Amino acid sequence: MPDGTKKLVLIELQKLRIDTDSMRFRRYLGIQYADPNNTFLLEGKDKPLPIISIYFLGYTLKNIDSIPVVHVRRQYLDNFTGEEIKERTDFIEELSHDIILIQLPLIKHRKRYELEQLLSIFDEQNQTVVEMRHQFLRNTSQYCRDFTQL
């Protein structure tokens, strides 16, 4: 977290090759929300783990076709004034989640910072990436050291 605190979350990694896969992932996400194993004990009560969905897209999104990594963050708004509400409540946090979309076709063209460089290992069109992927699996501890803050 930006303030240095740590938070336990369930990260769902999904890969979509074509844009018609979204219904399959909606159903899968519903199952994850309903799964009693995706909880933790807090003050004697089961609390749901926050879910962060990360989607690796094998295509680019219409209207967002130049940004490789898109982070969709939940925002609390006063419906009347439109002002952002900074406080958080468990009820809302437990019923919503952030998503990160990674548009793989755009990764190979842009490696502006460390995350985009790391994500290039998922570019299946690049033969050097296949070797990089094997290196990643062999040297996971090095990647973990280099990218711990990502």
Task: Describe it.
The chain has 150 residues and is of the alpha/beta class. 31% of the residues lie in helices and 21% in strands. Strands 1-4-6-5 form a 4-stranded mixed beta sheet. The chain is globular, with a radius of gyration of 18 Å. The model has no long low-confidence stretch (mean pLDDT 78).
List the helices and strands and how they pair.
Blueprint: E1 10-16, H1 22-34, E2 39-42, E3 45-48, E4 51-57, E5 69-72, H2 90-94, E6 98-103, H3 104-107, H4 114-119, H5 127-138, H6 140-146
Parallel strand pairs: 1-4, 4-6
Antiparallel strand pairs: 2-3, 5-6
Radius of gyration: 18 Å
Beta fraction of the residues? Answer: 15-25%
**Portion of residues within helices:** 25-40%
Helix count equals: 6
Average pLDDT figure = 78
- How are helices and strands ordered from N to C? EHEEEEHEHHHH
Biggest sheet strand line-up: 1-4-6-5
Shape: globular
Main sheet specs: 4 strands, mixed
Unreliable parts? none
Distinctive features:
single chain, 150 residues, alpha/beta, globular
In short:
By secondary structure, the chain is of the alpha/beta class.
